[in-house]
Every structure is written in C-alpha cells, then in structure tokens.
C-alpha cells in the first residue's frame, strides 16, 4: 500500500467527480425542460376511472331530466284537456239551467234537450 | 384514449439532512479558500492547486445544491443540478476520507467514517435522481 501514489489517486478521484458534476450541471443549465402539456397523461388510472364514472353519471342525470321534462309536458296537456272538458260540462249545466228556468219550459222540451238517457243516466245536451 | 402514462412519484426533493449539509459546505469551502487552512491530511497528500480545487468544489457543491433545492422552475433542471452538486460533494468527501485514513490510519475512524458515509449517501442519492430523471423523461413528451 505504501507504493500507492496517493496524491495522484486522490487527485484523479476528485477530477472524475468534478467532471461528472460539470456534465450534470451543464445538462441542468442547457437541457430542455420537462413539457407541462403532458400533465393530462400523468393522471393516474384511478383518477381517470373516477372521471369516466362521473361523466356517465352526469349523462344519466341529463337523460333523467329530459324524461322528467317530457312527463311534465304530458301532464300539462292532460290538465288542459281536463279543463276543457270541465268548461264544456259547465256550459251544458248553464244551458240546462236556462232551459229549466225559462217561462216557456215544458217537460217534453226538457226531455228532448237531454235526449235519450245513456248508461248511468249520462247523455249530451241538445240545444 | 390510450393508456395513461404511469405517475412518477419523486422521492422528496428537499430532505433536511441533505439541504443543511449542502448549505454548510458553502461557508466551509469559502473559509478554506479565504481564511482557514484546509484539513492537514488533505494538505499533506495533495498539491496546493488540488487543495484549492478541492475547497472550491466543496463550496460549489453547496451553492449549486442549495440552488437546486430552492429552485421552483423546471423539475428536470433542478434534479440535474442536485445530481451535479451531490457528485461534487461525493468527490470532495471521498477524497478527504481517503486522505485522513492514509494520514492517520484507524485513529481517523470518527471523522473519516462520517465523511465516508456522507460521500456514499451522496452517491446513493445521485443514483436515485438518475432513476427519477429517466422515468420523468420516459413519460413526458419533450418539445
């Protein structure tokens, strides 16, 4: 071991380390930066699954909202039809009332107005 | 959509032991260049100009290492700078370790052991950084 030229060995070792460090520092200064645009690619598989599940859930919610809107439109239409039928029935009642209270009212005429009784006594009013 | 690239988890960039030891290298190296002499074992075994290079490398490893720790810009540049600083430091401490054991034999077990462990720790961290850089550049699209 006394034959070892320690100054040369130690200087050489230091030189190698300095050389490696210079290479690394030059790469730090002159190297290309990491591209940020690949951020989307760095999303973990779990996060991607969550995103896909959330998208599907949002799609389902949208579909349900559309169905609910359609049902509301149908219900509105049925309500309009029911109101029209109620108005028609009210008009018939008014006509019957006028006919009954008229001074020239006769039983035959009233029977004629009501017409042939149908099932459960229901019948249209003939004016 | 294709398979996403794997997420690269970096080992903590600012471990306190590393940052503080790099920071203390700055006044130690500067002190040896300006005021105080280098360790006797180093002076005894190496030519004067190598001792100056040794002290300069110690100071530079501290400056570059601390700069890489506080760098908030591109992560790749910071990692390369940290690797360079640690490699410089490893060379400095390995040189000191060899010099102190050659000069004082096993009497230098404490300081030599400490400095030797520091040099080895630096080299291990250099290997970790190299691995992280490889994974980062494999997963990213460079311009």
Automatic annotation (TrEMBL), chain A:
<protein>
    <submittedName>
        <fullName>Uncharacterized protein</fullName>
    </submittedName>
</protein>
<keyword id="KW-1133">Transmembrane helix</keyword>
<keyword id="KW-0472">Membrane</keyword>
<keyword id="KW-0812">Transmembrane</keyword>
<feature type="transmembrane region" description="Helical">
    <location>
        <begin position="6"/>
        <end position="26"/>
    </location>
</feature>
<feature type="region of interest" description="Disordered">
    <location>
        <begin position="58"/>
        <end position="85"/>
    </location>
</feature>
TrEMBL record, chain B:
<feature type="transmembrane region" description="Helical">
    <location>
        <begin position="83"/>
        <end position="102"/>
    </location>
</feature>
<keyword id="KW-0812">Transmembrane</keyword>
<protein>
    <submittedName>
        <fullName>Uncharacterized protein</fullName>
    </submittedName>
</protein>
<feature type="transmembrane region" description="Helical">
    <location>
        <begin position="48"/>
        <end position="71"/>
    </location>
</feature>
<keyword id="KW-0472">Membrane</keyword>
<keyword id="KW-1133">Transmembrane helix</keyword>
<feature type="transmembrane region" description="Helical">
    <location>
        <begin position="108"/>
        <end position="127"/>
    </location>
</feature>
